[in-house]
Design brief:
By secondary structure, the protein is α/β, with parallel strands linked by helices. The chain has two domains: 314 residues, 3-Layer(aba) Sandwich (UDP-N-acetylmuramoyl-L-alanine:D-glutamate ligase), CATH 3.40.1190.20; 166 residues, 3-Layer(aba) Sandwich (Rossmann fold), CATH 3.40.50.620. It contains 16 helices and 18 strands. It has a nine-stranded mixed β-sheet, sandwiched between helices. A hairpin with a 6-residue loop joins strand 12 and strand 13. The longest helix has 16 residues. The protein is elongated and about 85 Å long. The relative contact order is 0.09.
C-alpha cells in the first residue's frame, strides 16, 4: 500500500490534551463506612487521552507529530509528557503550561473488567488572554512546520474562537489542509477548514436534521457545507462512514468492525489515519478505507488503543490465494460463492453491482467507482449476451460478453466478474448474499432487485449518483458527443 510514505510527513494536532488514568483491582468486600464496594488496587497505568490520543494514534503509524495544547504545571503534566515521549516522534514544546488550572485527568477505577467510577480533574472555563495568545502562536508555528493539521475539540477550553481562527488562517496561508473534529453546535466558527469529521449525532445536532439514512446524511451535510465550506466525513457507528464533498460524489463505506469491545477513542483513530493518509498523498477513497479499517481494528481492543501501520496494511490488503485470481475470466457462481466466503472469513465486506455495461462511458466509470468505495471487495455481475438481447433488442450487445468481462474486470476496484443469463441477478444475489448492493439512483431502494434480501441480513442498498447525459443507447445512436466539462468523472 506504499505506507512508507508516512515516513516523510508531519502532522500538527491542536486541541484538548488529557491524561487517562486506569486503576485496576478487585472487589471482595463492602466498605464499613458506607454501602459501597472496596476496590483493592492491583495495578495502575497512564495513557494519553483526548487530543493526546490523536497524537499517539498518529505516532503509532510512524508519523512525526507536533502537539499543541494546554496543561497545568503539575504531576499529571509530567505523566502526560512521559507517555507521549515513548515513540520518539512527538514534539511537545507546543504544550502550554498554566499553573492556575490542572492538567485534565480522567481517573477510572475498574474491577472485574467493569468500570466502577470515574473521577475528573479539569477546568473548562475560558483561558486567560495571555494563555490564549500563547496557544495561538504555538498553533501557527506547528502548522507551518507540518503537512496537515488537526483540530481536536473536547470542549475543555483550548479551542476558543481565537485559537480556531488563528489555526485555520495559518493553514490557509501555508496552503495546508486542516481537519476538524467538531464539538460545538454552531459550525460557522470552522469556516475555512478543509474537512469536518463529526459523528452522526453531532451532524444532526449541528444541522437540526435527521441523519439515519444515506440520503439524510447527504442532505444534512449540504447544510453544513453552506455554513463552513468544508467537506464532511461522518462516522456512523454500525453504518460505517460517509464522505460528502462540497463538490463531487458522496462516498459511503460499510463498517468493517468484527468484534466490538470498546468504542472509546475510535473517532481519534479515524481522524489520525485520515489525516496521515491525505498528507501522504492518498486520494480520499483510499484514505477513508484505511481510516474505516483502523476504526474496525481499534474497537476490537479494550481501552484507549491505537493501530499500527502493519495492522492497517494487513486489513486493507489481506492475502488472497493464487487460485482465487480470475485472470480476466468470468467466475462461475460456485467460484464466486467460494471467494465471497473466503473474503467474509477475513472480515471483508463484499459488494455487488450489475448491468449490461455494453459501451463503457464516464457514467459507468463513476458508478463502478462509487460501488468499489462502498465495500472492500466488489463483484460485478454482467448480463450475458442472451440476456442483453432480450432486454435491449436484437442489435445489442455491441460488445460480446467476453469483451465486456475483459473491460470491466480490468477496471480499478473490481475484484471479480460473473455473468448471468437471466433477466435479473436475483439468483446471484440469493447465492452470494452480498453486504452491499449497488444500483444507479434512477431506481428507488424498493425497485432494486434483491434489495430486500440484502437488507434482511443487515446489508445496505447503495444508490449511486448518475452522471447526466451519458448512456450507451445515445452512444450507439451517435447522439452523444464530447463530454461537457461539468460532467467529468470526479477524482
Amino acid at each position: 500500500m506504499a505506507l512508507e510514505r508516512f515516513d516523510r510527513i508531519a502532522i500538527a494536532v491542536i486541541g484538548d490534551v488529557m491524561l487517562d488514568c486506569y486503576v485496576h483491582g478487585a472487589v471482595d468486600r463492602i466498605s464499613p463506612e458506607a454501602p459501597v464496594p472496596v476496590v483493592r488496587a492491583r495495578n495502575q497505568r497512564e495513557l494519553p487521552g483526548g487530543a493526546a490520543n490523536v497524537v499517539t494514534n498518529i505516532a503509532s503509524l510512524g508519523v512525526r507529530v507536533q502537539a499543541v495544547g494546554l496543561t497545568g504545571a503539575d504531576d499529571a503534566r509530567d505523566g502526560l509528557l512521559a507517555a507521549l515521549a515513548t515513540s520518539g516522534l512527538v514534539e511537545t514544546s507546543g504544550l502550554v503550561a498554566d499553573g492556575a488550572r490542572p492538567t485534565t485527568r480522567k481517573l477510572r477505577i475498574l474491577a472485574g473488567g467493569q468500570q466502577m467510577i470515574r473521577v475528573d480533574y479539569e477546568e473548562t472555563g475560558a483561558v486567560p488572554p495571555a494563555v490564549e495568545a500563547a496557544l495561538a502562536t504555538a498553533a501557527t508555528s506547528a502548522i507551518a512546520a507540518c503537512d496537515i493539521a488537526i483540530l481536536s475539540d473536547y470542549g475543555k477550553g483550548v479551542l476558543c474562537d481565537a485559537v480556531i481562527t488563528a489555526a485555520i488562517a495559518a493553514a490557509r496561508a501555508q496552503g495546508r489542509r486542516i481537519i476538524v473534529d467538531p464539538k460545538r453546535r454552531d459550525w460557522s466558527i470552522y469556516a475555512g477548514a478543509s474537512v469536518l469529521t463529526p459523528n452522526r449525532r453531532e451532524l444532526s445536532e449541528a444541522t437540526g436534521l435527521p441523519c439515519d439514512s444515506d440520503a439524510e446524511v447527504v442532505t444534512a451535510a449540504a447544510r453544513a457545507h453552506a455554513a463552513t465550506g468544508a467537506d464532511i466525513l461522518v462516522t456512523r457507528s454500525e453504518k460505517g462512514m460517509s464522505f460528502i464533498p462540497v463538490t463531487g460524489t458522496p462516498i459511503h463505506l460499510a463498517t468493517v468492525a468484527r468484534n466490538v469491545f470498546d468504542v472509546s477513542g475510535a473517532g481519534d483513530t479515524v481522524i489520525a489515519v485520515l489525516a496521515a493518509s491525505l498528507a501522504a498523498g492518498f486520494e480520499i477513497g483510499s484514505a477513508m478505507k484505511m481510516a474505516n479499517h483502523a476504526a474496525g481494528i481499534v474497537v476490537g481492543k479494550v481501552g484507549t488503543a491505537t493501530v499500527s501501520r502493519r495492522e492497517i496494511a494487513e486489513a486493507v490488503e489481506p492475502s488472497i490465494a493464487p487460485e482465487d485470481a480470475t485472470d480476466g475470466r468470468p467466475l462461475s457462481l460456485d467460484q464466486a460463492v467460494a471467494l465471497r466466503t473466503a473474503w467474509a472469513r477475513q472480515g471483508l465486506s463484499v459488494g455487488l453491482a450489475n448491468g449490461c455495461f455494453d459501451l463503457i462511458h464516464p457514467g459507468h466509470v463513476s458508478l463502478i467507482r462509487q460501488a468499489a468505495n462502498s465495500c472492500d471487495r466488489l463483484i460485478m455481475a454482467l448480463n450475458a449476451d442472451s440476456s442483453v438481447k432480450r432486454l435491449k433488442g436484437p442489435s445489442r450487445p455491441l460488445q460480446d460478453e467476453e469483451a465486456r468481462v475483459e473491460v470491466i474486470g480490468a477496471m480499478k476496484g473490481v475484484a471479480a466478474v460473473i455473468l448471468f443469463a437471466e433477466d435479473t441477478p436475483l439468483a446471484i444475489i440469493e447465492a452470494l448474499q452480498p453486504d452491499v448492493l449497488v444500483k444507479g439512483a434512477d431506481y428507488t431502494e424498493d425497485q432494486v432487485v434483491g434489495g430486500h434480501i440484502v437488507k434482511a441480513r443487515g446489508g445496505r442498498v447503495v444508490l449511486a449518483q448518475l452522471m447526466p447525459g451519458h448512456s450507451t443507447t445515445r452512444l450507439a445512436a451517435g447522439g452523444q458527443s464530447a463530454v461537457p466539462a461539468q460532467t467529468k468523472v470526479p477524482a
